[in-house]
Design goal:
There is one protein chain. With about 160 residues, the chain is an all-beta fold. It folds into 2 domains: about 50 residues, no CATH class; about 100 residues, Jelly Rolls, CATH 2.60.120. About 0% of the residues lie in helices and about 45% in strands.
């Protein structure tokens, strides 16, 4: 008679690994092991500890005031973990997160966009989280445009704080 072994390993509260194995009831031998190679955090398996006060693991932030066109946040590969934004325009605008090592161009290389409600004093807040909102292979640039992937800048500048690593 055979029985099934099931295991659930929760990593950092949000990722899970499911392992299933079959074992004969007459055998007590170990038939497999699950482990995480964490020699260098984040490089071997994409599991990173939550940011803390150590500069090597804490998130950086970039504040962009009265922003209309695209500007550079980070000139090398990285991840965006959160954003705080306020629209200065009387119409709905979109924050574009652009894969670019330079200032970037609105509508080009957009990884994702977030809408900003028109003429509001309530900011859009996507708090920093352990899992990145987006991965940028070249660099991180941001801009505020009239549409999610369009190339036209919003008329009045908005304010952004981008949390990245």
């Amino acid at each position: 008679m055979k029985r099934r072994l099931f295991a659930l390993l929760v990593v950092l509260g949000f990722a899970a690994i499911y392992v299933a194995a079959q074992q004969s009831s007459s055998s007590s031998a170990v038939i497999g092991k699950v482990g995480i190679d964490q020699t260098t955090p984040g490089t071997t398996n994409a599991v990173e500890a939550l940011p803390d006060v150590a500069a090597a693991v804490a998130l950086s932030n970039s504040v962009k005031a009265t922003l209309t066109t695209a500007v550079n946040v980070k000139a090398s590969a990285g991840n965006v973990y959160g954003v705080f934004a306020l629209n200065g325009a009387a119409s709905t605008c979109w924050i574009q997160f652009i894969n670019s090592a330079g200032a970037g161009t609105l509508g080009t290389g957009v990884i994702f966009s977030i809408p900003l409600p028109a003429s509001t004093t309530q900011p859009v807040w996507v708090g920093p989280a352990p899992m990145a909102l987006g991965n940028f292979s070249t660099g991180i640039a941001v801009g505020i445009a009239t549409t999610a992937t369009g190339s036209s800048a919003c008329g009045t500048g908005g304010n952004l704080t981008v949390f990245y690593k």
